[in-house]
Fold this sequence. Notes:
By secondary structure, the protein is of the alpha/beta class. The protein has one domain (25-285): Acetylglutamate kinase-like (Carbamate kinase, 3-Layer(aba) Sandwich). The protein has nine helices and 13 strands. A seven-stranded mixed beta sheet has the order 5-8-2-1-11-12-13, sandwiched between helices. Strands 3-4 form a two-stranded antiparallel sheet. It has a two-stranded antiparallel sheet with strand order 6-7. A hairpin with a 5-residue loop joins strand 9 and strand 10 (179-181). Helix 3 (68-77) packs across helix 4 and helix 6 packs parallel to helix 8 (241-253). The longest helix has 25 residues, at 93-117.
Amino acid sequence: MLKDYSASERVNDIITALPYIKRYTGKIVVVKYGGNAMINEELKQQVMLDLVLLWTIGVKVVLVHGGGPEISSLMDKLGKKSEFVDGLRVTDKETVDIVQMVLAGKVNKTLVNYLEEKGAKAIGLSGMDGRLIEAQIKDERLGYVGEITKINPNPILDLLEKGYIPVISTLGCDRNGNTYNINGDTAAARIAGALKAERFLLMTDIAGVMKDKNDPSTLIPEITKDEAEKYYADGTISGGMIPKVQCCFDAIDEGVRSVVIMNGTIPHSILIELLTNEGAGTMFNGDKK
């Protein structure tokens, strides 16, 4: 009897997910994946499984990735010290070559391979391919750290139309042939906006926006712009969370229907967020007044 009951429960879970499957089938979902959420290999494999499942049921998945820890690791091996200003990596000419090697090379192609191994069709792109991300120098102090001037979504749309998962590393370029290191959250938000995505998931290593950053039970499930201003003022949103929250609202302003900051270190958090009524983070909903 226990075996039959467990099977019934599994079927019921599938039926419960049907409204969510209908909502996202044929729609674009952009996932930003990077940083500490990418370090654990077992979790990385689970994230790839989540994306392949979504792709299998007809969701148009776009994966935008970073790779900060991998960049720092290679720089250490090469004897080059990592420097940061206001949370952004100082990127001289030698460093931008390392960033390109790691992001457009090792990290990008590893993720593509994982997705292909699990049965999906995936193609890796960098922001330089098809001039997907055009940029200019953000701050002379930072060197080749780019500020995005234009997103060209056509290479992504072409791949989605042909049934591929585009896997995008956040490098940019300008008309003079320079390469730029682009903040992953910012690039993903701008890409999601250019695609008018149904959902943008920004994966981090924390639960979302919390009233007490050390207590996940204080997670704030939804935030409007007006509420965010209050949280800025009282320090609830501070430090590195400020630019993440700003990216979320920027994406909504550019046409993304809803955005979620979520904990990418929780197994199958993507499926929990998209295919259940539980949710897995803090939602920034453009429809909420």
